[in-house]
Every structure is written in C-alpha cells, then in structure tokens.
Amino acid sequence: MKMGGKARFLLAFLFSGLTLAGAAHAATCGNDTSGFERWKVAFAQEAQARGVGPRALNALAGTTYAHKTIAADRGQKSFKLSLKEFMQKRGSAAIVSQGKKHKAQRAALFDRIERKYGVPAGPLIAIWGMETGFGRFMGDQNIISAVATLAYDCRRSEFFTGHLYAALELIDRGILSPQDRGAAHGEIGQTQFLPGSVLKYGVDEDGDGKIDLIHSVADALASTANFLRAHGWRPGAGYQMGEPNFAAIQGWNAASVYQQAIALMGRDIDGGR
C-alpha cells in the first residue's frame, strides 16, 4: 500500500515514539544475575538518549555482576552493634592515635580547609580513618560494576540508578576511570564518596586542575568538608549529639552508631575541643 508523505511522517513519528517508550521501560530490575546483561543493553539505550557519551557507554558494557557487592549490601551487621562494640570493632582508639599524628603532619592543610569550609580537622580525620584507614584500603571492587549491579538490583534500584548516571558522567569527564576500584557499594576514594556526591561536592583542593578523591588527600578532605558544609555545618558550633553540627554528620551516614563514633573520635582528635 502506498502512502503519502504526511502519512509516512506520522507512521515514522509513532514508531519512534513507541521505540522510545519501550526503551524507557526496558531496564527492568532483577534480584539475580539472570537478567543483568539484558538490563545493561536496555539501560545503555536510555543512557545514550540522555546524552551519555561513548567512553562511559563502553565502560557500562564492560561491567560484570558484582556478587560481593550484593553480599555486602545484604549483610551490614556492624551497624547493629552497640556504640561501644562498634567503636571497638572499627578500632577507634587507633584512629584517634593515628589521627592526631595526621593532624600535626598536615596542619597547614587542615587550617586552610577550616578557613574555607568552617569544618575543623577532628571529624574530617575521623571520617578518613573510619572509611579507609587513612587511605590504606579504599576497596577492591570495580566501581562502575558495583554501582551498575546495585542500579539493576531491585532492593534500591532507584537510589543507585542516580549514582550510576553520575558515575557515567564522571567517566565521560575523565574524573573516574573505568578500571578504578572502590568499596562494595561503589564508594570512591580516601573518604568514600558515592558518585553523585563527587559530582555535587568534589573540589580540586590541591590545584592540579582535576578532582581526584582517590590519589589526592587534599581533594578528598576538602570535598568531605564541602559535603558537611552543604549539609548545614556551622563554623565554630559543636558537633556532638544535641549540638548544631551533629546533623551534618548525620547527613554523611545514616547509621546512628557511625554518627556517634565520628563525633566522639573527632572530639578526641581535636583535643576535647
């Protein structure tokens, strides 16, 4: 059957609309490995439609289902401990002892960060020590695979889909490499930022022209201070439970024992300040 130009245009328009609508709903979550590869193809179509570039799309294509990430996501038992048990398990005494040395060794950096962001050294060092042992272990999971797995997994798909788009943007911008490794949930660098937080709060503190939370201690600590400031940190105010800046620490991590531990270790590192 022959059609006129107008009819052909309308048919093409309807077909493209159906195709796009199908792609928009094609990336369906799952709870095991069986649908991961199909999900990746569908998600890549959506990502490309949103302007994600070839570098990031290639990185997404190379991801694998992260079994260790799923196991970690299902088994966060340490947050169910008492505060005393949690601090002992995480080695709070060692963090405080080593943290005081880091504070003295990097005094100029911490002074500069406090002038810029209003956040003192103590809580920043406590977070740094708690998250990665002062950069000694930043994780062994491929970051993009971990975040893609959690975006696919039905448990928190919506939350991690946003972080996956952020990770893809970081790759396109050259801030993150497809080979970079981090923690189980795709946390990045010395203080373990999720990809979306790198985009929002990451800063180039060392002045080398790039945001590098993995290799630059200055960038990581200043970015952490920037995060806390954005979550309501008030210069000079207290940060223990019941004090104004404790809410900013709550913004960093949702677990009550973690929040209290950071506040107590930070106080001890700051010398009871």
Automatic annotation (TrEMBL):
Residues 36-240 form the Transglycosylase SLT domain. Residues 1-26 form the signal peptide. It comes from the Bacteria. SUPFAM superfamilies: Lysozyme-like (SSF53955). Keywords: Signal. This is Lytic transglycosylase domain-containing protein. It comes from Chelativorans composti.
